[in-house]
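#onboarding

Welcome to the new folks! Below is a worked example of what a typical request in this channel looks like: someone posts a single protein sequence, and someone else replies with the predicted structure as tokens. Don't worry about understanding the tokens yet, we'll cover that in week two.

Example request:
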Amino acid sequence: MWWIALIAGMASYIDAAAMTSSGTALVLLKDTLALTPEMIGVLSSALTFTVAIGALFGGRLGDLFGRKVVFLATMAMIAVGSLLLVFVEVFPGLLAGMILVGLGAGADLPVSLATIAEMAKAGLRGSMIGFSHFLWKIGSMVALGIATVVGDWGQLGAQILFGHIAVITLLTLLGRISVPESARWRAERLAEKAEATSRSDAALGWSTLKTLLKPPFVTYFLALAAFYTLMNLGSNTVGQYGAYMYTEVADSTVQVYSTVKLITMFLGAILVLVFMKVVATRWRMTWFAAGAACTVVAMCVPLVFGPQVWTLHIMMFLWLVGTVFAGEGIMKIWTQESFPTLLRSSAQGAIIAIARFGSAGLALVTPVVLANGPRALFGLLAGACLVAVVLAFVVFSRQRTTAIDEEEAQEVGPEPVAVPDARLGR
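Example response:
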């Protein structure tokens, strides 16, 4: 079971490694391949937007055609794209590589998470989904560590960064061949096809995306989309423009920023292990509330005292602690729990897509805002965090049973039974 969690969760590792590596690699290729600032902007944007597009369509394809066929195809796409980035030396080839990596990584995320949720035992599900977030942290750390070593190697350094992604992707592809199709997806799909035989069309009823916007799923879908989008504004800003804040706003150096980021990322990986321990207990929402408070305070510190080196240090530390317990990790778990099998991957993909599009939109204007009024940006992010965590707490603290609990209960006997919710102490 943990092998499946590892081999499916490598989607998160590859996503993080690709995002972290691309920025450094494009800078290293700038002089060698005569890339203009406009070209670098197009390549970076292509990766961000195609991850969102891939998540939207990949999640749906995973619900329609199965988990295994999609997550094998996505790994093949990423492998081809990363190899293009290693060996191609012209802009169109680099753009094609970025698009393939982005589409593949985005499409793989919701399908791999659904695979883990459906194959895990109930008592381990939260921990195993949380493990994918641990792998995300490790992917970022490894890519940043490689970038630190090869940061002045020019084109060779960029090839090593992209080559690391290619090697990991190919190994993951080989490992996934042995992973079986989700038995729960297969059973639900067969049952729905049987039900559809009485209709004159080939539509498969409730498994359409429109169902996400109808009761009983609409509340969870809108709450999760809003929560993750608003929280991801802060995460994307800290990740993409952290060095810019330190150097251009706080008059510090890249070295200071890199050191702080490495320390916080290492601490984050340790805290994710704590998250994996508590997420399936009755204390889940208590830890969420504590993390939520940290995220709001994190953005308030530079808002109140101004963006200085020490306030940015505090911001990064508190943001790291807060988002471990009230960020992407808990969003993934809530999503897997809140939707039935034939909607699970679609819902996850749509939520990721909405959030990535929102972050990409803010990223377009972030440098201008930081240059003209950085406190306005931190005020916006603090307000977004507050709305996000309050909304999520209100919705999910009231959740008594989950869709996946109900499916498991129906598998046990002919009559659905109430399943105790361990994290609520029931």
